[in-house]
User: Which sequence fits this backbone?
């Protein structure tokens, strides 16, 4: 019966896949180091989206190699780096390198075009 939780943490230095039982006990884990970012200019911090995807795949494959049964997974939780952004097309394919949260570029020429006024979320 599927009852375990697969947690995937896409961090700054590595991607980790962790499997927990229903009581929160860690059953298995796999860590895959990644290059945090590259910079083609001052203040820029980017990464190829494929780096993240391949690391997630490697981390999960590491769990399967440890004997984790895929059918035992009831849910998946994903965490990622703060405000890292990957722009994608309508089919979900990356349009450019990911802009990492460390990136310092910004523009002062453009002001927000939408007035959010008193926007509130209701439960």
Assistant:
């Amino acid at each position: 019966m599927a009852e375990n939780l697969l947690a995937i943490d896409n961090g700054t230095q590595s991607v980790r896949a962790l499997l927990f039982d229903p009581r929160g006990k860690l059953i298995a884990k796999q860590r895959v180091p990644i290059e945090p970012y590259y910079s083609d200019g001052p203040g820029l911090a980017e990464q190829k989206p494929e780096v993240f995807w391949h690391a997630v795949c490697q981390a999960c494959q590491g769990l399967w190699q440890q004997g984790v049964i895929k059918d035992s997974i009831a849910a998946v939780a994903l965490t990622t780096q703060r405000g890292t952004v990957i722009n994608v097309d309508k089919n979900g394919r990356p349009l450019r390198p990911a802009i990492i949260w460390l990136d310092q570029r910004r523009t002062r020429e453009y002001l927000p075009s939408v007035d959010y006024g008193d926007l509130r979320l209701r439960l």
User: Anything to note?
Assistant: The two ends are 32 Å apart (CA to CA). Helices lie at 49-65. The mean pLDDT is 89.
